[in-house]
């Protein structure tokens, strides 16, 4: 039996597992009828993990964009826009991380990637710098500030 192009089937099992994990975590944070509780506020551990997901997704989208541009330029432009927006989202999560008060594992909320004082500050700042170098090689400053798509919708 031939599968259609939109049939997920067994394609990309790791992406489906990552999505399911995030969905499960999101549902676990939400108040339930049988156990009402206030929404959990973001903490540094959540933001560090979320930043890791965003930057990894950013890397994947970068690879897909490059491969797609050659076969479908219009789709490649849309993926390039999504790539830029993922960078913007990861930058905001990084900034939010540093606006939260330090937890017991770190002594400062400053972004100091040159100082090797351990996770999570080291992890998120180094990850953010690496992603920043990657996007600046392929994106103009105007694209990073812009918020528009290439299609007129």
Q: Choose one word for the global shape.
A: globular
Mean pLDDT across residues: 79
Alpha-carbon distance between the two ends = 37 Å
Radius of gyration (Å): 18 Å
Tally of DSSP β-strands = 0
Q: How would you sum up the major sheet?
A: none
The structure class reads: mainly alpha
- Stretches where pLDDT is under 50 for at least 5 consecutive residues are 147-153
Helix share bin? 55-70%
**Which sequence of SSEs, written as H and E, runs from N to C?**
HHHHH
Counted by DSSP, the helix tally is: 5
Structure notes:
- The protein starts with 12 loop residues before the first helix and ends in an 8-residue tail after the last helix.
- By secondary structure, it is mainly α.
- The model is unreliable at 147-153 (pLDDT under 50).
- The longest helix has 28 residues, at 44-71.
- The protein has helices spanning 13-29, 44-71, 73-99, 121-138, 141-145.
- Helix 2 packs antiparallel against helix 3 (73-99), helix 2 runs parallel beside helix 4 and helix 3 packs antiparallel against helix 4 (121-138).
- 62% of the residues lie in helices and 0% in strands.
């Amino acid at each position: 039996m031939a599968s259609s192009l939109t049939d997920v089937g067994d394609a990309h099992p790791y992406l489906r597992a990552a999505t399911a994990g995030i969905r499960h975590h999101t549902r676990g944070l939400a108040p339930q009828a049988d156990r009402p509780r206030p929404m959990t506020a973001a903490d540094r551990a959540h933001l560090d993990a979320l930043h890791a997901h965003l930057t990894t997704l950013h890397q994947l989208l970068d690879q897909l964009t490059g491969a797609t541009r050659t076969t479908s330029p219009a789709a490649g432009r849309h993926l390039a826009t999504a790539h830029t927006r993922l960078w913007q989202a990861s930058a905001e999560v990084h900034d939010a991380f540093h606006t939260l008060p330090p937890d017991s594992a770190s002594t400062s909320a400053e972004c100091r990637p040159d100082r090797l004082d351990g996770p999570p500050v080291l992890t998120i700042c180094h990850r953010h710098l690496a992603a920043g170098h990657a996007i600046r090689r392929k994106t103009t400053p105007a694209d990073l500030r812009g918020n528009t798509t290439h299609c007129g919708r």
